[in-house]
Amino acid sequence: LAILIGWLSGQAQVNAPTVHCISVDEVTGDVTLTWTPPADPNGQFFAYLLQVSNNQTGPFTDITVPTIGTTSYTHTVNANLGMWFYRVRTIYVNAGVQDTSAAQQGTLRTMLPQFVNTTDSTARVGWNATVTGGLPGDATDYDVYRRMGAGNPWQLIGTRPLANRLFLDSFKVCSEDIAFKVEIANAQGNCVSSSAVIEQLFEDNTAPD
User: Fold this and answer.
1) What whole-number distance in Å separates Cα of residue 74 and Cα of residue 80?
2) Which of 208, 137, 202, 134 is nearest to 174 (CA)?
């Protein structure tokens, strides 16, 4: 009855989808967003509206996804080179007129790790959250991965709680490119948010005996 009254009064709407993951491809930098579709009992859905920018304040470019059953979208960019920002909305038809839902989760962003400080045998890595408080269904910890040399496998080297986005790693190498990335699993979306990859050459500067 409440839905019917809302429809007749021109107030019915289709909410934005609930985004669970924002993942950066480690090779291409493409960004994949994964979400749960909203309810649409009155068949008002028209399209998802993804507003994207490489600047938090815009300008934003609009991308439409026309099928309500779609649960993910891959944006072709290179987010390994810089952060990307997303607002996810729904376009719906209300009393014969197109309208757009609010971006209920605000402005989301890819995770971009940074080297806070380094020595020849340590690296302190920091990163940003995808959104304040995390995405619905996020795990309680981030997983931190390290790769020693291009082409070698990633190794899980530690975890950090959501409120602590800093990790100090130590190692001993002669001369090696070392890469880091951060991931957080999401149970509701059955997906993982992966950060961009950062990499730096580390060389042992210890004087010989």
Assistant:
1) 15
2) 202
**What single-letter amino acid sits at 156?**
L
Q: What angle do CA 32, 35, 40 make, to 5 degrees?
A: 140
Q: In what order do the strands lie in the sheet with 18-24?
A: 18-24, 31-36, 72-75
Question: Looking at residue 69, what is its pLDDT?
Answer: 97
The pTM of the whole model exceeds 0.85: yes
pLDDT tens column, 14-51:
999 999 999 999 999 999 999 999 999 999 999 999 99
The partner residues of 18 in beta bridges, in order of sequence, read 36
All residues at 6 or more sequence positions from 167 whose CB lies less than 8 Å from its CB, including other chains: 124, 125, 126, 144, 157, 158, 160
